[in-house]
């Protein structure tokens, strides 16, 4: 195992997940917001240091996305529980969309890897935009617990996430269909 600085930052981000959940459960939106900001900083730093210090590793290629997805999933689940957070609540149906899309992409990537030997499945620009809005929505929802005037912005972000999640999920489905068609030699319909 290669314990580089980027990998340690990813492990730190994993460790922030339960502390973030506890902060939300205990009604401490400022602490939850600070933890989410710290997690974002560790994410940016691990990517930067991996490239700048040339410390990319196989372990890091797994740890980084796992930490990101675990943090986002935890945030969407805990912020969807009624009467738990002090600000705007993320609707359960949006949380279900976000999680379902991620599970669908993971499942399809595993199937493609097993059946066609695909090893890379790079994110699209739309997928990166969706992820950015997921993070922004969580930050604005947490901010609405401190400043109620942020509530309309939080709701707007949540609905943008819902739209981007559906569109990006459909884009991945079409990419998978195209990949399967190309790899089988079958014509695209």
Distance between the termini: 45 Å
Briefly note the structural class of the backbone: mainly alpha
Q: Biggest sheet: strands, sense, closure?
A: none
The global form is globular
Average pLDDT reading:
86
The share of residues in helices is over 70%
Helices and strands, in order, run as HHHHHH
Strand content: under 5%
Q: Provide the gyration radius in Å.
A: 18 Å
Low-confidence stretches: 185-189
Annotation, overall tally of beta strands: 0
So how many helices? Answer: 6
Describe the protein:
The chain is mostly helical and 189 residues long. It contains 6 helices and no strands. Helix 1 runs antiparallel to helix 2 and helix 1 runs parallel beside helix 3. The radius of gyration is 18 Å and the shape is globular. The protein starts with a helix and ends in a 5-residue tail after the last helix.
Question: Topology, please?
Answer:
Blueprint: H1 5-25, H2 29-52, H3 58-78, H4 92-116, H5 125-144, H6 151-184
Keywords:
189 residues, disordered C terminus, 77% helix, mainly alpha, single chain, globular
Summarize the structure.
Helices cover 77% and strands 0% of the residues. The protein is mostly helical and 189 residues long. It is globular, with a radius of gyration of 18 Å.
């Amino acid at each position: 195992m290669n314990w580089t600085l980027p990998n340690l930052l990813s492990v730190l981000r994993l460790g922030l997940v339960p502390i973030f959940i506890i902060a939300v459960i205990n009604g401490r939106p400022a602490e939850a917001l600070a933890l989410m900001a710290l997690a974002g900083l560790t994410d940016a730093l691990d990517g930067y240091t991996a490239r700048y210090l040339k410390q990319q590793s196989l372990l890091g290629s797994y740890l980084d996305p796992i930490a990101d997805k675990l943090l986002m999933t935890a945030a969407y689940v805990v912020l969807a529980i009624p009467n738990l957070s002090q600000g705007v609540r993320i609707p359960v149906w949006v949380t279900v969309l976000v999680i379902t899309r991620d599970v669908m992409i993971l499942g399809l990537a595993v199937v493609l890897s097993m059946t066609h030997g695909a090893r890379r499945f790079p994110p699209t620009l739309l997928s990166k935009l969706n992820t950015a809005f997921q993070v922004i929505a969580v930050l604005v929802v947490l901010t609405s617990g401190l400043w109620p005037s942020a509530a309309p912005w939080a709701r707007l972000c949540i609905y943008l996430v819902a739209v981007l999640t559906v569109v990006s999920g459909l884009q991945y489905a079409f990419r998978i269909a195209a990949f399967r068609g190309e790899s089988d030699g079958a014509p695209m319909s």
